[in-house]
Specification:
The structure is a single chain. The chain has a domain of 69 residues: Archaeosine Trna-guanine Transglycosylase, Chain: A, domain 4. The protein is built from 14 helices and 23 strands. Strands 5, 6, 7, 8, 9, 10, 11, 12, 13 and 16 form a 10-stranded mixed sheet that branches. The chain has a 5-stranded mixed sheet with strand order 19-21-22-23-20. Strands 2-3-1-4 form a 4-stranded antiparallel sheet. Strand 2 and strand 3 form a beta hairpin. The longest helix has 17 residues. The chain is globular. The model has no long low-confidence stretch (mean pLDDT 95).
Length: 448
């Protein structure tokens, strides 16, 4: 790989005696990784059932690497049991460490690698606002969040200025995985080099300065903000942190949890973390964890959303047997689409939403059609009638391709709607009549 001369010169300045080891790392293949979705399955249990040869990412408790396999072409992927993600990129969401009940913002969230982990950490409590300025990228983000079964989401496609005006000092945790020059991704994606040559660190630095200050303005006192990039540039990394600390004096750095092989930030910013590919089994990354001075007041109550649930929808939802699924939820009907939201989510209505809460399904005349998102958010035992196939049953792939199935051997409890799964993990819906299952798997997600 031929690296830009200006880039090599800057890296030699940063790394000194380590520069040759850094250059040598470009002769090695990047690591492929997957991160287990702990909302659905414990990492240790996934190790037992994994159909792939995996090795732990030592600094990420639910992260693994794999070799020469295609996990995106497996029923477990369609069940949302894991997300494909490069190991270093797993680190920011892990180090921000939201807990159930937090209000969390991922400001630049598409395609969803970090947002899906933030959502899994919440375990259905609190809210995750996942934003991307690009509407097309935000649609991909929404799919990944719903595939992972994250119910408490608000997916927006807004300019950050609009978010600041509507949500000042609103969030407990904020992730800013900022647009950057991508130097840390040259090995994995060589076309990033040409992008770097046309728009380098100076271009992105101005964007990052604006984004990080906007994020700080949306952080509650006592809350934490994690800033990350996949670049090595000192201007984009420590330079952006320097800008924030000068312009938002209420913000201060805290130590980002370290691991052997991580490097400290430059220029006196020892609390920051750098990941270099010649020291770790991952691509280049930078992280800085910050906290806002003060303590936040108690949140007010009420979401501003509510509606009467149409009778067919109520009848279907009554079939979700676990009594705590709808605890602390209100329901919102937009035209014929029904959503479940938290009673105290407090999200304003004057934003461009792609999703508000959990999309439950569509109310049409005298019937209710459950959504793919609802199937992915449930567990198999949370719906009154379900059918699960083993991973090696040929009907799993036929289901994912949208075909009608013969299930006369399954001894289903009743006709009608069935939650369909693989090895006990939901995939989608079907409708049973006799021994024949009419396929209701969402067409836009079908196996290609």
């Amino acid at each position: 790989m031929t690296l830009p001369i200006a880039f090599e010169r800057e890296m030699k300045r940063l790394l000194g005696n380590d520069f040759q080891d850094f250059l040598d790392s470009y002769d090695h293949q990047p690591n492929s990784g997957l991160r287990v979705n702990t909302r659905k399955i414990a990492a240790k249990y996934f190790e037992k059932i994994s159909p792939f040869s995996i090795e732990p990412v030592e600094w990420i408790p639910n992260g693994y690497t794999y070799q020469n396999e295609i996990p995106s072409k497996d029923p477990y992927y369609y069940a949302g049991l894991y997300y494909l993600q490069e190991p270093s990129a797993m680190t920011p969401a892990d180090r921000l460490a939201p807990v159930p009940g937090d209000f969390v913002l991922d400001l630049c969230a598409a395609p969803g690698g970090k947002a899906t982990e933030l959502g899994a950490r919440l375990q259905g409590e609190g809210i995750l606002v996942a934003n991307d300025i690009s509407n097309s990228r935000a649609k991909a983000l929404l799919k990944n969040l719903e595939l992972m079964g994250i119910p408490n989401i608000y997916v927006t496609s807004e300019e950050p200025e609009k978010l600041v005006s509507q949500l000042p000092e609103f969030f407990d945790k904020i992730l800013v995985d900022a647009p950057c020059s991508g130097e840390g991704m040259f090995r994995k994606d060589p076309k990033m080099i040409s992008y770097w040559e046309s728009q380098g660190p100076e271009y992105y630095s101005l964007i990052q300065q604006k984004l990080i200050c906007q994020a700080a303005d949306m952080l509650r006192p006592g809350g934490r903000l994690l800033y990350s990039t996949c670049t090595f540039s000192e201007l984009e990394n420590e330079g952006t942190i320097n800008w924030l600390l000068k312009n938002r004096p209420e913000m201060h750095l805290v130590s980002c949890p370290f691991y052997e092989g991580f490097s400290s930030g430059y220029g006196g910013y020892s609390e920051c973390v750098r990941i270099f590919p010649h020291k770790m089994a991952g691509e280049g990354h930078f992280m800085a964890l910050l906290e806002k001075d003060g303590s936040a007041s108690k949140r007010k109550e009420g979401s501003g959303y509510s509606c009467k649930i149409p009778a067919p929808a109520q009848e279907f939802l009554d079939g979700c047997s676990s009594s705590d699924i709808w605890k602390d939820k209100v329901f919102y009907l937009q035209e014929d689409r029904l959503y479940a939201l938290g009673k105290s989510d407090l999200m304003p209505k004057k934003l461009r939403y792609l999703r508000t809460g959990l999309f439950l399904g569509t109310c049409r005349k005298n019937r209710f059609e459950p959504s793919q998102a609802l199937a992915m958010a449930l567990q198999m035992d949370q719906y009154q009638s379900s059918l699960s196939f083993s991973r090696d049953d040929e009907r799993v792939l036929r289901y994912l391709k949208g075909e009608t199935l013969d299930v006369s051997d399954k001894n289903a409890k009743k006709n009608g709607w069935q939650l369909i799964g693989v090895d006990g993990y939901p995939l989608g819906w079907g409708k049973l009549s006799g021994g024949s299952l009419k396929n209701k798997y969402y067409a836009g997600w079908r196996w290609q």
